[in-house]
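(Fold this chain)
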Amino acid sequence: MTLPGEFVLRRSADVPVDTLVRLVRAYEEGSTGTATWTREDVLLAISHPHYEDNSWCLTGPGDELLGWGSLAPSGGPAVDAALTVLPGRRGAAAARFLVLHLLDRTDALAVTHGTSYGVDVGGILGGDTVLPRVLEETGFVRGATITQYDVDLSHEAPARVLPRDAHIRPAVTADDTDAMHGLHLRSLARGSKIHDPAVFHGRIRRLRELSGFALLMEIAGHPAGHVLAQAASGQGRVLEAAVAPASRGLGVGLALVAAALGELRRRGCAHALIAVDTAQLIDPEGLRRDLGVQGERAMTHYHRDPET
């Protein structure tokens, strides 16, 4: 694919982490008026084992950073993609080039592995005026919408009553990570899944290195759900909450989130962001009420089927 003369494509691995942080925060501010990403968020995003070979930045005149796109093969039928493009005069052209570049790279991976891949793009913010249009023009369809809640941790959430014979504990062993991977794959939450056990183990290991933790709920000795969270630059993140299908409706998810928020509070966080698939919430108003939600924003996933 020919690169337009005004653009320069660079390996993201050659771009300083703090520059990527500024790009994502500028994208957030341009789309929603509020920036939340931290250095730890970027470090976790670039920790995928295939990052160096599958991530690129696009610059314009004067080395202005316009966009960032990456692929994360996870062993499933689709590769996960992330896109960040700044709005403005060059935004649509930059977005179109990055999307087509990622699709070309997906085709190359398909040839290498002898299979066809779909592409999942997550985290497109409500208020983004560029990427939704470009994605739909290039064959993507709108999928799940994830809501990110901003929670005030000075608000003490009501104590949650656990199901009978249930307890929550830190997940620290390799066996615990195996159990969480099974929950991750079986969870009814929409969005992309990490199918490769080694990639999932790597993600958990990197999360712990970046001030993160995992909690596992067991009911009568059987894994019922888990939550992944991180204390980053003084603010908390609840990155994933997964519940076994057989344990839905028992309050497992809300109990796990509440436990994670309590741990983040103990780690000195004043507020936390919780990413939740709203379609899986049995009592969304209860979550807003009990957890002290101050604000929320939508993040949409897009999917493109493999070429046939």
Summary: The first helix runs from residue 17 to 32. The chain has two domains: 8-139, 150-298. The CA atoms of residues 123 and 226 lie 22 Å apart.
